[in-house]
Amino acid sequence: MSSNEPRSNFLRTQIQSDLDQGVVTDVVTRFPPEPNGYLHIGHAKSITVNFGLAEQFGGRCHLRFDDTNPEKESQEFIDSIQEDVRWLGYTWSGEVRYASSYFEQLYQWALYLIDQGLAYVCDLSAEQAREYRGSLTEPGKDSPYRNRTIEENRALFEQMRAGAFADGSKVLRAKIDMASPNINLRDPILYRIRKAEHHQTGNAWPIYPTYDYAHGQEDAIEGISHSICTLEFEDHRPLYDWFIANLPVPSKPRQFEFARLNTSYTVTSKRKLKALVDEGAVAGWDDPRMPTIAGLRRRGYPAAAIRHFCEEVGTSRSDSVVDVAMLESAVRNHLNQHAARAMCVLDPLRLVITNVDASEQLTLANHPSDDSLGSRSVEFGAELWIDRDDFREEANKKYKRLVIGKRVRLRGAYVIEADACDKGPDGRIDVVYARLIEGTLGEDPADGVKPKGVIHWVSCATGKTATVRLYDRLFTEANPGKAEDVMAVVNPMSLRQLDTAVIEAAAAEAAPETVFQFEREGYFVADRFDHRPDAPVFNLTIGLRDTWSAQDG
RNA sequence: UGGGGUGUCGCCAAGUGGCAAGGCAGCGGGUUUUGAUCCCGCCAUUCGCAGGUUCGAAUCCUGCCACCCCAGCCA
Length: 553
Known about the structure:
With 553 residues, the protein is of the alpha/beta class.
């Protein structure tokens, strides 16, 4: 594959072929969420597939709320979904659409099916209907109401629409085949009675269409050329096609299915995500540990990285679980290129440089290879904070940080040599004393004794205390969805909050959602909601790749 | 045990009859004022299994096996 060509997948091949053969002239796709929850990484995949295909083939992609079940839906979700799709970087064609705005047309088409003798009103209770449906291995039985006359069905359905019957007392069903090996074709339900207020249509409708009846027709109304959904709907395709074939619809969309995205160490079931929120395992739907779009955003995962990840993963029809390391890799890759560097000491230890008295301003590049990110001024003085983990009184040869009697480079500044340290009564080191080696700003020591490594630091005089939240994977199991109880596999170390970290003054001023690479530590984002210049709050997006910590040293 | 799908490297995934892409992970080595990045190299004689067709098969045929989905008036 050449680097700029989109990776081949069956959907791209299909569409290209349809275009080549003139089966379609315009590519129109749609992302059709039900507004009954927050979007998560799996939805991101569907979004990139649908919008991506439209983009690639010069077509359009609609955003359509599949709002046929008012009892589970709300305006809150309609708003959050739009925000998430926009944040991911996509613009839908035209206005936001709603299945509910097609309710009248759908109703008229239901009457049409009745008139064709292809639909009937059934009085079976839900329980009875289940019995009549048969089983996976046994055919179903015809409903006793299956042979009502067209006139009777029409009158009954009109009364259903008028609100004459109680919830659940009747349904409208398609008359297909109760013996079909495909259970979806055993006289599926088109309409049920639900006297529920709808977030868009209010109390205008006492009956609501089912997904099976509504979806294909919604696509047809909108002129969708390729209706892309997930694998579990494959069995519904014959039904989808049946409606399109039997109704005077304005276009003939076709359905194609792909495998939904699953990632390791992640749960996407709405029920389980809700349990995490309700039981306090996380702080909310947008907690940085959540796989929701809002959570990933608050974690600092760039939209472009999520998009790139979805592309790298590919689109196929085989069930799979993608290693979450792949997502993390996409995030690191993007941030390495785009995030400005800064210094932050997570676990401060005071360093006194005994031969320095005046402070000075040093200019540091914001990115090691991208000059367009500019530079910043950082104060350097006699008292600095360094990380407690970057100093040892003595250490083996593998340890490349500060050791008494040894040299280390202060990132972007001078080489120093440690002389001594003070300890408190508990043996804990309080202060490290070191000497600056003259002439080492941008130069190696003149005596030829090079420092073993480089450590980061922040001026005691101008550094700002910050809250830093260190996140780790939410689960201890690679497949938490398989666990009997998700709460039992929640990682107790998934959040560690530090209240005494110290960051460069300039970083504190950053706008919320700005991501930095705190050098030698990782990528951190200024919290979208909690960060303030006078009370900085940073979330760990992802740590730097670490190939040495497991080793001695 | 009815129907619909899927099986290519540890994890994804191209490939659609001509001598197994790529990414992630992993492993070596080099560069480096981030133990990061970057760079170089290694990593499937083999495509669920067994037969068959063919000069030639991951790609075609047959049979098996494994896994996923379907019996909501959810989507």
